[in-house]
Write a structure and sequence with these properties.
Layout: E1 2-6, E2 9-13, H1 27-30, E3 34-39, H2 41-56, E4 61-66, H3 72-78, E5 84-89, H4 90-100, E6 104-112, E7 116-119, E8 133-137, H5 140-152, E9 157-158, E10 171-173, E11 179-183, E12 197-200, H6 202-207, E13 217-218, H7 224-228, E14 230-236, H8 243-252, H9 255-264, E15 270-271
Parallel strand pairs: 3-4, 3-5, 8-11, 8-12
Antiparallel strand pairs: 1-2, 5-14, 6-14, 6-15, 7-12, 7-13, 9-10
Helix pairs in contact: 2-8
């Protein structure tokens, strides 16, 4: 593995990417074993289905367990119930560790999901009325990320010291007197018709059938967010270099997975390997 550091967590990449296998892993010893992974339904569980076939060719079973929240996938890895999870970005993972005194680490960066601003009652930024409502996710670093996208579009200005942990309380300029509506990320697509616009997490946008091409604004692939919000496979510290986890990461960082991402999600899921 080649390791890099981001915000205190290890992010590993396979030394022989592409074919889905890591040359340092003893696949014969893993034959007949099961790797358990917690995942969000879209796109993580779908991507894992591709990795599942790669691992099956070596006699390894991938047990994908799907969750619809952002907490349980971490608790089941922290308590040892499951081997790994694949549902979160590195900034959320770091924030979760800090708030819950856990010691979960990244075993590898897999993809990036650009945040996007989608139209609701209002079709364009120029058409936004004074006091218009824009919905954003209310969890951890995701709210700050959404607000940074609004700032990039010139709608608000944030306290520069707030960083990606910004909330609406850190807005220092709001010329259109926008009403920032904070809510659970999973609910954002459902309220889109009730607000003027909404900044929606990539996985929930995909799950709701929203197309990135319909978005008003999208995070740039080369933005700071692309690094800060790399979606990772996470494990309990000390397990990141086990053969099971290296085999899992190698399968996720394969050409088959890259092709699946590029052909399936229309730019809403960007491979990082």
């Amino acid at each position: 593995f080649i390791e890099s550091k981001y915000n205190g967590s290890v992010v590993s990449t396979v030394t022989n990417p592409g074919n889905g296998y890591d040359d340092s892993v003893d696949y014969d010893a893993l034959k007949g074993q099961t790797i358990t992974v917690a995942a969000s339904p879209t796109p993580h569980a779908e991507i894992l289905e591709v990795a599942k076939e790669i691992l099956a060719a070596k006699g390894i079973t991938l047990d994908i367990q799907v969750y619809n929240d952002y907490v349980v996938p971490n608790t089941v890895v922290d308590d040892g119930t499951l081997d790994a999870n694949y549902f979160q970005h590195i900034s959320y993972l770091n924030n979760y560790n800090e708030e819950n005194e856990t010691d979960l680490v990244s075993a590898g960066s897999i993809h990036y999901e650009p945040f996007a601003l989608y139209p609701g009652k209002t079709a364009s930024i120029d058409s936004l009325a004074d006091g218009a409502k824009i919905a954003v996710p209310n969890d951890g670093t995701n709210e700050g990320r959404a607000l940074k996208l609004l700032e990039a579009e010139g709608l608000i200005e944030l306290d520069p010291d707030a960083g990606f942990l910004a909330t609406k309380l850190d807005i220092v300029k709001n010329p259109k007197n926008l009403e920032i509506v904070e809510m659970e990320a999973a609910q954002l697509p459902r309220v889109l018709t009730d607000v003027d616009m909404a900044v929606i997490n990539g996985n929930y946008a995909i799950d709701a059938g929203l197309n990135l091409s319909d978005a008003i604004a999208v995070e740039a692939d080369d933005s700071e967010a692309a690094e800060a919000y790399a979606n990772v496979g996470a494990v309990k510290k000390g397990n990141e270099n086990s053969d099971k986890i290296k085999a899992l990461v190698a399968a996720l960082q394969s050409e088959e997975v890259r092709k699946f991402m590029e052909e399936t999600y229309g730019g809403a899921v960007v491979p990082l390997f």
